[in-house]
Automatic annotation (TrEMBL):
Stated family: Belongs to the short-chain dehydrogenases/reductases (SDR) family.
Record Gene3D superfamilies: NAD(P)-binding Rossmann-like Domain
Protein name: 3-ketoacyl-ACP reductase
GO biological process: monocarboxylic acid metabolic process
Pfam families: adh_short_C2
UniProt xrefs under PANTHER family: 3-OXOACYL-(ACYL-CARRIER-PROTEIN) REDUCTASE (PTHR42879), 3-OXOACYL-[ACYL-CARRIER-PROTEIN] REDUCTASE FABG (PTHR42879:SF2)
Superkingdom classification of source: Bacteria
Length: 236
């Protein structure tokens, strides 16, 4: 299952996993029919699975209707931008609910079901550069993404013995809806590009490759890692 699979990083990840042989549940609050069609056109198999995460407990309950899952990619996320002194409580709650609480509850539901079946599994959470840095005008997003890095390690420790690997991928600046506002601001856009050692913004497919790796046998001994996929941003 890939959450938020209708667009952006989630869509590319769903495609990447399908190309490597996974049957994909493309999960989203919006229809993932386009993603399913892309996967089928590439010779893979997928299903469109409705999943709304703004009420995290309801989202986690819906996970139980998905059948046995081997892989969970927690990709769905939102961002709200405002000066910290003006930042609204509703925005704080909305971001923390989708970006952190829903991730925890989905991981918990996935792991419980896997343990009951005696199966292992792979969880990949989508973190951010703002799992490490503070960002500007995105206090709730930064708090949630720092939380994702910590949660990933905490769950990895508890579940490694049951064969459930929990890792995160921290994307750099990727061309998706999430970064449209930044790319439309010529000053911020130039500042960002000028600091990326790779000399380009990332593509969603760059993230899909790293997520897919973490779901292969080759990554069997990798757990609790937060893998930066950022064109060198954090190394600079
Ligand atoms: P995006 O194009 O905005 O995609 C976000 C996805 O999350 C969409 O599928 C969206 O569905 C879904 N979503 C939002 N709220 C939801 C809810 N309440 N229930 C279910 N699904 C919901 O952005 P993206 O860049 O691909 O983001 C994917 C992940 O990467 C996010 O966790 C984001 O924080 C992270 N990330 C992105 C970047 C970047 O540079 N783009 C960098 C670091 C981390 P709708 O289309 O219906 O809104």
């Amino acid at each position: 299952m890939v959450t938020g699979a209708n667009t952006g990083i989630g869509q590319a990840t769903a495609l990447g996993l399908a190309e490597r042989g996974a049957h994909v549940l493309a999960a989203g609050r919006s229809s993932c029919a386009e993603t399913v069609a892309l996967i089928e056109a590439a010779g893979g198999t997928a299903e469109d699975f409705t999943l709304e995460l703004s009420d995290p407990a309801a989202g986690a309950a819906r996970l139980a209707e998905a059948g046995a899952l081997d892989i969970l990619v927690n990709n769905a996320g939102i961002i709200r931008r405002a000066d910290a002194v003006e930042f609204a409580e509703d925005d704080w709650d909305a971001v923390l609910d989708v970006n952190l609480k829903a991730v925890f509850l989905l991981c918990q539901g996935f792991a419980k079901a896997a343990m009951e079946r005696g199966a292992g599994g792979r969880i990949v959470n989508i973190a951010s550069l703002l799992s490490f840095q503070g960002g500007i005008r995105v206090p709730a997003y930064t708090a949630a993404k720092h939380g994702i890095a910590g949660l990933t390690k905490a769950l990895a420790n508890e579940w490694a013995g049951q064969g459930i690997n929990v890792n995160a991928v921290a994307p750099g600046y990727i061309v998706t809806n999430n970064t449209a506002a930044l790319r439309e601001d010529p000053v911020r856009s130039a500042e960002i590009l000028g600091r990326i050692p790779a000399g380009r913004w990332g593509d969603a497919a760059d993230i899909a490759g790293a997520v897919s790796f973490l779901c292969t046998p080759a990554a069997g001994y990798v757990t609790g890692a937060v893998l930066n996929v950022d064109g060198g941003w954090l190394a600079r």
